[in-house]
Amino acid sequence: xxxxxxxxxxxxxxxxxxxxxxxxxxxxxxxGASTAAIAFLFFLYGARLSTREAVDGLRHWRLHVTVLAFxxxxxxxxxxxxxxxxxxxxTDPLHQGLLFLTLxxxxxxxxxxxxxxxxxxxxxxxxxxxxxxxxxxxVTPLLAAAxxxxxxxxxxxxxxxxxxxxxxxxxxxxxxxxxxxxxxTRHKKVLGYVDRGSILLVVYTAFSEGMVQGIWHQVSPAxxxxxxxxxxxxxxxxxxxTWYGSKALRFDRADRIAIQFAGSKKSLxxxxxxxxxxxxxxxxxxxxxLMLFHQMQLMVCAxxxxxxxxxxxxxxxxxxxxxxxxxxxxxxxxxxxTVAAGAxxxxxxxxxxxxxxxx
Length: 359
Prior knowledge:
Elements: H1 5-19, H2 24-48, H3 51-57, H4 61-81, H5 92-101, H6 109-117, H7 122-147, H8 156-186, H9 188-213, H10 221-248, H11 253-263, H12 268-279, H13 283-309, H14 312-320, H15 323-349
Helix pairs in contact: 1-9, 2-8, 2-9, 4-7, 4-10, 4-11, 5-13, 6-7, 6-11, 6-13, 6-15, 7-8, 7-11, 8-12, 9-12, 9-13, 10-11, 10-13, 12-13
């Protein structure tokens, strides 16, 4: 499957940081610019998310609780289990990055896109991803404090900084949505460059710090191969648990699709700024597992979504659905028409996970 062009940009940014890392005053400028860019990104997320959509989504509270459980309970438990792979397969810093990966919120953009392609419950995917991003602003740093401890660089100041950088701009966007929401919606393609540019800037800043600190000698090709193998197993386990676990909980097919895509994925957009705050100069190693997992989840989920769209179970379940199930399908189809263009963009440019309070 072709590599997402945005991933090539991410890799190019890492290469630029390796060749021309920001130092001294330039590093301070890059750090300040990345902080401002991420704050503006979350402000746009708040302006984009329809409050009515979020309120309507509360009807599916069972689905949202299930996604949150997979994201912030099952994922971290699996991350903790990988501790046994140190030092045979993973180094301690790589394991910390892998564990941090399991703590970050779900995506929004790619969850919507893949749910739409697979003919699932799109409104549920929108709300599940958004709720996960909002909850993650507080829960991810707290989980990092509990599971990573001092190695994660957590402090009360870290939590305050994350709230100020992510939650406050999002709330401001929601407050101003009445006046600027239409403009943001009409120019979503242009403003999409803010998404990608913000992430690239954060990646450059984090990896520049890593180069200046000289930490890259800690990672060998064999360790990277081991990390990729571990992440492939982690993704396979989560895709299996979300699909069959939601079936055991008696969700219909449309909801199971939303749960699988929202509950098995992790947000690059939310994870990167949090890692920058929590890990400081060691953020480059901390976000490496997240960057690799990000590309892997896009490639695998794109294949799954395409297959689900032609799944015979879709027609069978649609024919036997109850009145409530039929209403959900109708609602998903209506919402799909609204987000189809944005969903297609999201697949092609990655899930930089409008995972953030939107993403």
